[in-house]
TrEMBL record:
Family listed: Belongs to the binding-protein-dependent transport system permease family. LivHM subfamily.
The protein's name in its UniProt record: Branched-chain amino acid transport system permease protein
One example of a Gene Ontology biological process annotation: amino acid transport
Family annotation (CDD domains): TM_PBP1_LivH_like
Signal peptide: none
Source species of the chain: Nocardioides albus
Amino acid sequence: MTLIWGGLALGAVYALVAVGYNIVYISSKTFNFAQAQLMMVGAFLAYTALVSWNLTTPVVVLVAAAVVAGVAALEQVVAVNPVRDPHNILVTTLGAAILIDGFVQLQWGSQPLAVPFFAGDDAVTFAGGRVYPVELFLIILAVVVVVALTLLSRRTMTGLALLAMAEDREAAQLRGVNVRLMAFGAFVVAGVLAGTVGVFVGPKTYAISTLGASLALKGFVVLAIGGFGSLPGTLVGGLIVGLAEACAVRYLGSEYAHLTVFLILVAVLLARPSGLFVRVRERVV
């Protein structure tokens, strides 16, 4: 069970990255390559606020969420909004990710920094295995975030407007949906999520300047497995990837972890090219 808990926690982190990708994808049918980097900024802000400023965790969460949301809003205004072609947006957000990586390395250096967790670092026995409090918290957080966003997307006018944009952006605009404002809001919400989650990802992964790149890759794998635009798919895909990686490290060696994950990705895409939770619908014109 100890292995399973570790894998589930790792999968929860990947799922939370993929949720941020999906929020932007649903609103604009494109990707924010800097989403994982925004989460990394949240982890570094948590280190500074908790260790250097001695702030409490609730205050740190608010600070990280506000700052990262501001960075996400700036990215949307500068790197996304002026660009019309979705393919070019991939390039501009990749550029934003590179800039954030460079800034983080200049500001905090390249050494891993230990981010404290409010519930301590001592492992506890739970359900037949040893698990750290931060791991349990991340698993619960991932489930709560996915359930909450799924309910919001299906039972609120804002969520329904986002789903309408995902189906047909032009038709949604004709029905009175302010697509630019909704796209901007999606970036801000994804930024709030990244900043908040980064505070709790740091204690699991350490705050390190390569964190964004590593999480970005696994986040896209999770997105492809679960299905683009599917919030429940991100949770299931994340847990699959996390468990597969943990088992590969334990039984095959760390050098086979990435290979195992990508073999699972290939197998899923061969069986269901649109992902586990997305159905391809044909339109008769």
